[in-house]
């Protein structure tokens, strides 16, 4: 079949133990404002706007570039993966 899905972007965002310890030390010494887990920082409005624009046109651009046979094959493969029995 294929390789299992792995979210590479999430790996890049995760903080390792040394980074977490350094951040905690800086917060304790008052060299850096305290962070609250789960609260994202401020996002750049321009970057958000560009990302949204790409997401808006991405699906329709892909649809226009693919033949009906290619779209059917992609949908068939997705359905097979969705309905595949897990090996237990």
How would you describe this structure to a colleague?
The structure is a single chain. The chain has 88 residues and is mostly helical. It is built from four helices and no strands. The two termini are 17 Å apart. The mean pLDDT is 79.
Helix content: 55-70%
> Which blocks of ≥5 consecutive residues have pLDDT under 50?
none
Element string (H = helix, E = strand)? HHHH
Q: What radius of gyration results from the CA coordinates?
A: 21 Å
Strand content: under 5%
Main beta sheet: strand number and arrangement?
none
Please identify the structural class as seen in this structure.
mainly alpha
Average per-residue pLDDT, rounded, comes to: 79
N-to-C CA distance: 17 Å
Quick one: how many beta strands? Answer: 0
What's the total helix number?
Answer: 4
Gross morphology is elongated
In a nutshell, what does this entry contain?
With 88 residues, this protein is mainly α. The protein is built from 4 helices and no strands.
Question: Could you give the topology of this structure?
Answer:
Layout: H1 8-13, H2 17-29, H3 45-65, H4 68-83
Question: What keywords describe this structure?
Answer:
elongated; single chain; mainly alpha; 88 residues
